[in-house]
UniProtKB/TrEMBL annotation, chains A, B:
HTH lacI-type domain ranges (all copies): 67-121
SUPFAM superfamilies: lambda repressor-like DNA-binding domains, Periplasmic binding protein-like I
InterPro entries: HTH_LacI (IPR000843), LacI/GalR-like_sensor (IPR046335), Lambda_DNA-bd_dom_sf (IPR010982), Peripla_BP_I (IPR028082)
Signal peptide, first to last residue: none
Record key words, sorted: DNA-binding, Repressor, Transcription, Transcription regulation
PROSITE patterns named among the record's database cross-references: HTH_LACI_2
Gene Ontology terms for molecular function: DNA-binding transcription factor activity; transcription cis-regulatory region binding
Pfam families listed in its UniProt record: LacI, Peripla_BP_3
Gene3D superfamilies, sorted: 3.40.50.2300, lambda repressor-like DNA-binding domains
Name under which the protein is recorded: LacI family DNA-binding transcriptional regulator
Lineage of the organism: Bacteria, Pseudomonadati, Pseudomonadota, Alphaproteobacteria, Sphingomonadales
DNA sequence: TTGAAAGCGCTAACAT
DNA sequence: ATGTTAGCGCTTTCAA
């Protein structure tokens, strides 16, 4: 094995050294180390190139070659403020001047400088996103999509930063955000949980997929895990199952707690008994260091003389492991055993055979709503407090 | 079915309406719509609170309550510039004054205003990340992690934006970046491909996971797919397989092209025949609208009288489908059939039973290197052009 | 409808 | 080692 690895390393190194050129022969891209000239050409700022002659000498070589509002003003022969008015769509500009200014903006390639604007207005037009690991976690990237879609319609930009779980990183990030005079912050977590802040945020903040442990009333948007759990259980019951197993998440996280409660309530609502030996955790270990053990747990449960006919699961990964467990015991899904997932993590739920019936976490909507609420707060809406729960629709596929 | 859905909707609505309070009884978070007072308290800017009496009347109520460099200067009794020097770690400040200023900065809670700094220096301290869908695609989020890690060590921030494939979105993003006077841009794609720019970027740009079709010499960092493909084929050969199948990606994408070439070359290097009927695409449809069909393709191949003993695959999703295909035919992996993945998308590769031997795409490293090179360019290093390929290490697990 | 003046917070370029 | 002056690009305020 060690020998093999050594060999591979050598092979790899050899290929690395030469594969670039090979790659290029395939792709017809020339591999040349760009010389200074072409690099410079490549990066030269294009605006300012027109810079025509109507202005006095003073306007000559501005740093960074950036066209300023003054350049435009001089070009048209109006005041700075008039250009500013046009750029910001303010009233009180005659149609004629407006057209003239707009033409000049286009030909000169003027782009407003948000930094300068910030200095005057104290509004940066940027919203910050802090995530524990959300931006690097497949399940929840939809949150970011939702946020981005909403934020960009409000002509704001998104500055994102990752704590990667490190508290000192979080401090640094808040600091950076203050430096950039971020207008507002969205604080998102990878999974639904409670968070604690070292100090209460000094910037308007909306929590995404989490709630604040110490700050009741802090605006936050979370999935309705209770409802999702209830709907999943109902599905199993409605399909006629009475022997219902449940391979859960780490029972300590909020989502598991709420869904577990929902499971019990749903079962009770139909007078079906909850069998403790059929409710088992699919993960080992504490929060943040979970180890998947659903395969073994499921096999164990399914090999008993009296076994469940359907398995509810904590998430789609657990469901997938149950699927493999069923296969390994020669059971057919859903005929011999039904399986219901959670999350609708499509890379798994839609691609597994058979595809999973699963409860979808409304991550995209959560992102949109959270951004919505933050924007409302920034616009001065003062009533936007409290926890908001979004429903988790069930997605029916073949597994149960 | 329609009835069921209707029922579920009603149930869901009912639960949504009431589950919030239920959720709270579990989580001990009060659900109160925060009143104006507490909201204001929550969001009041904390800095500026100390604002002690040594300054003249003029310093009274500044907008946004932000402490400026002038406040600090007045507090200590030095000039603005001296504070500026301390804040920027410039030389020529006596240890004594420096200590004094630092103390004042701390007590007043001064945070530099990057916008104002930008106006003078024309450097925003922000790097922009444009991605087609990378930030929302599981496989490649590691690219972002790498970029962030590298960028944050350089005390730069990251502004990210998603084109979601829409070309007009891309235009808007470049515009936004210009407005914020972004220092440099990282342009990342979800999968290794060639990109075309409407107009050549006006900001220093490094391509990530892609190469420019029209701009040779544009700096870019990509995985060495050829080498990865070669290593995968070698693994199969070294395990003694001679009947080697290959369920590929959409053959039109660069990665598939390069790996296919590598496969052929590797087979040739050992004098093993490539069987065309065993090389088949696991996806249907054009670029961007691929439909997974690996399950059917694999079953087809495996049911033939003469069948491969190992399946190389285009990615781990394809590998997973091959796994299901094998199971469905009662084959054991890896005994009856070995499977080798690609990408090392851990959510699948590590959690499937048996876990996948697979070739890892070095996304994290790609991110780091790309950021590296951009920072070098920004620092004035003019030699940083051309395509850079990073090796793809093989990860040995149980499947082959 | 338009413009002039002032100044936001900061730093470059000089004094001292 | 420290301060002064000026001005970055923009908007606010007020006057015309």
């Amino acid at each position: 094995m060690a020998i093999l690895c050594g060999l591979l390393t050598i092979v790899r190194a050899r290929w690395l050294a030469t594969s670039i050129s090979r790659q290029l022969s395939t792709s017809s891209i020339l591999f040349v180390d760009v010389d200074n000239l072409s690099l410079n050409r490549l990066y030269v700022v294009q605006s300012g190139r027109v810079r025509s002659g109507s202005d006095p000498a003073e306007t000559a070589e501005r740093k960074g070659d950036m066209v300023s509002i003054r350049d435009v003003a001089a070009h048209v022969g109006v005041s700075d403020k008039t250009v500013s008015r046009v750029a910001n769509n303010e009233p009180n500009v005659s149609a004629r001047t407006k057209a003239l200014v707009e033409a000049a903006i286009a030909t000169l390639g003027y782009v407003p400088n948000m930094g300068a604007r910030l200095v005057r207005t104290n509004r940066s037009g940027v919203i910050g996103l802090i995530s524990d690991v959300v931006s690097t976690t497949p399940n929840s990237v939809d949150i970011i999509r939702g946020i981005q879609d909403r934020v960009s319609t409000a002509k704001q930009s998104l500055l994102i930063a990752n704590t990667a779980g490190a508290p000192d990183a979080e401090q640094r990030i808040w600091r950076t955000f203050q430096e950039h005079r971020i207008d507002g912050v969205l604080f998102a977590t990878m999974y639904h949980r409670r968070v604690t802040f070292a100090s209460r945020p000094t910037i308007p903040t909306v929590l995404v997929n989490c709630t604040a442990a110490d700050e009741p009333g802090m605006p936050s948007v979370v999935p309705d895990d209770y409802e999702g759990g209830y709907v999943a259980a109902l599905r199993a019951l409605d399909q006629g199952h009475r022997k219902i197993g449940f391979v859960t998440l780490n029972p300590k996280i909020i989502a598991a707690e709420l869904r577990g409660k929902a499971f019990i309530d749903a079962m009770a609502s139909r007078g079906v008994e909850v069998r403790p030996e059929w409710v088992r955790a699919g993960y080992l270990g504490g929060i943040g260091e979970e180890q998947l053990c659903a395969y073994d747990v499921a096999r164990d449960m399914l090999q008993a003389a009296d076994r469940p006919t359907v398995l509810l699961t904590g998430n789609d990964q657990v469901a997938m492991q149950c699927l493999f467990a069923a296969h390994s015991l020669g059971m057919r899904v859903p005929d011999d055993l039904a399986i219901i997932g959670f999350d609708d993590f499509q890379m798994i739920s839609a691609q597994v055979i058979p595809p999973l019936t699963t409860v979808a976490l409304p991550y995209y909507d959560i992102g949109v709503r959270a951004a919505d609420r933050l924007l409302a707060i920034l616009a001065g809406d003062v009533s936007e407090g409290g926890v908001e729960c979004l429903p988790c629709p069930i997605v029916i596929r073949a597994s149960g």
